[in-house]
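[audit] Reproducing an earlier prediction to check determinism. Same input, same settings, fresh worker. If the tokens differ from the archived copy the diff job will pick it up downstream; this log only records the rerun itself.
[audit] input (180 residues):
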Amino acid sequence: MLQPVTAALQQIRIMTVRDNPQERSDVNKQYLIIVSLLTFILPVGAWIIEHLISGLSLSFTLFGKWFIFSAVGLRLFLAGIRQTTKPAFTAKEIFHIDNPDCFPIVIELGFANLCFGLVGLVSLFKPEWRVVSAFASGIYYALAGLLHLIKKPAGANEKFALWTDIIIFVILCLYFIKTV
């Protein structure tokens, strides 16, 4: 099961950090590590740990529980905190906008991320919320990924955001379809 995740991470690395030294210098390693942890490593780790502790099967439903909690709940909630308290990071590192006039828009994006993130976090304790989180956050990630794609990612961080948004959308879409 870890092979597809490893292959996806390798493909993302290839797509985000080519042999272009200019692009390599734009990489925010902390951002890449945190997003990778929240999107891939933590959900897979929690899925396996719960299986080992509880004896539940390694089902897609069990994986979805931890994926929604981590890739949606933790990731979006933490992003929302960062965007509302430090909008310059998202503006400069992700969207390459070096103008404080856009900060109110980034802060508003942070409010949306806080809300989506809270639904994902609560879904750990309220299983019936998972399908709602998968649906709403899936659309959100799809639209965010589409925006990155249309805009043509300017740097490694934005390319990474593009690919993780698309991967998250696909997994949430599959979870939603399987659940309803």
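[audit] rerun output stored. Observation attached for the diff report: The chain has one domain: 2-7+29-179.
[audit] end
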